[in-house]
C-alpha cells in the first residue's frame, strides 16, 4: 500500500486541484471531513481525514474507559471502507488493504517546532492563537480497493454520515484517467456521481 500511496500522492501533488499547502491538525473545520480518491484501472485508493469531534464527539486525548472505547469503535468502523463508502454491487469491489487510526497534535511535534521557528518572525499573533487551540485530534484512514468491473462503479453512497452523526460534509478530491475534480458531499445529499470518471 505504501508504494501505491506514494504514487497516488505524487499524482495528486502534480495536479493543480490537489496542490494545497500541507494540512495541519488545527486547520480542520468541525463537521467537514476530507476524502482523497485516486482511481487507476481496477484499483481505487482512498485517504480520509476527519476531525475527532466529528467521529467520536470530542477532540481531547481519550482519558476515560468510555473515551477509549469510543475511539476503538470508531477506528474499527473506519477500517471497513465499503460500509462507509458504498459502491454498487455490480462493480464487484473488495478491500485489498485498510488502515485507520487517530492522530493528535503530539504526533506532529516536529512539524510544530519547524512552524514555531517560522512563526516567530512573521506570524506571532497566529502562533499565539494556535497555542490556545491545543488538543486537536484527527482520524486518518487509508484504503485500497479493487473492483472487477470499475465501469459499474457509477456512484458512492456516503453511509459515513449514518455512522458518524456529527459529520456534515465530506470534501472530495478525485483523480482518475479523465483528470482531477473536487466535490462537496453533504449529509442531505449523500451520493457522489462517478459516471464518466473512469
List keywords for this structure.
3-stranded antiparallel β-sheet, 6-stranded mixed β-sheet, 9 strands, alpha+beta, 198 residues, disordered N terminus
Describe, in plain words, how this protein is organized in 3D.
Helix content is 31%, strand content 33%. The chain is α+β, with helices and mostly antiparallel strands and 198 residues long. It is elongated, with a radius of gyration of 18 Å.
Distance between the termini: 21 Å
SSE pattern: HEEHHHEEHHEEHEEE
Radius of gyration: 18 Å
Number of helices: 7
Mean pLDDT: 79
Point out poorly predicted stretches: 1-27, 108-134
The helicity comes to 25-40%
User: What is the general shape?
Assistant: elongated
Largest sheet: 6 strands, mixed
Secondary-structure-based class equals: alpha+beta
For the largest sheet, list the strands in their spatial order. Answer: 4-5-2-1-7-8
Helices and strands, with pairings:
Elements: H1 2-13, E1 32-40, E2 43-51, H2 52-56, H3 65-78, H4 81-84, E3 85-86, E4 93-104, H5 109-122, H6 124-132, E5 137-147, E6 155-158, H7 160-163, E7 169-176, E8 179-186, E9 191-193
Parallel strand pairs: 1-7
Antiparallel strand pairs: 1-2, 2-5, 3-6, 4-5, 6-9, 7-8
Amino acid at each position: 500500500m505504501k508504494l501505491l500511496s506514494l504514487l497516488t500522492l505524487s499524482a495528486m501533488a502534480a495536479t493543480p486541484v490537489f496542490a494545497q499547502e500541507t494540512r495541519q491538525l488545527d486547520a480542520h473545520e468541525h463537521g467537514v471531513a476530507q476524502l482523497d480518491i485516486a482511481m487507476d484501472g481496477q484499483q481505487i485508493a482512498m485517504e480520509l481525514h476527519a476531525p475527532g469531534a466529528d467521529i467520536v464527539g470530542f477532540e481531547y486525548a481519550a482519558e476515560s474507559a468510555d473515551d477509549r472505547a469510543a475511539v476503538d469503535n470508531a477506528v474499527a468502523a473506519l477500517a471497513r471502507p465499503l460500509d462507509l463508502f458504498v459502491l454498487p454491487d455490480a462493480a464487484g469491489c473488495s478491500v485489498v488493504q485498510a488502515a485507520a487510526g487517530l492522530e493528535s497534535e503530539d504526533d506532529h511535534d516536529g512539524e510544530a517546532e519547524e512552524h514555531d521557528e517560522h512563526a516567530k518572525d512573521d506570524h506571532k499573533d497566529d502562533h499565539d492563537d494556535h497555542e490556545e487551540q491545543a488538543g486537536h485530534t484527527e482520524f486518518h484512514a487509508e484504503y485500497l480497493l479493487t473492483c472487477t468491473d470499475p465501469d459499474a462503479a457509477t456512484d458512492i453512497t456516503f453511509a459515513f454520515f449514518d455512522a458518524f452523526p456529527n459529520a456534515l460534509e465530506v470534501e472530495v478530491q478525485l483523480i482518475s484517467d479523465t483528470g482531477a475534480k473536487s466535490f462537496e458531499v453533504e449529509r442531505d445529499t449523500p451520493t457522489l456521481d462517478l459516471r464518466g470518471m473512469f
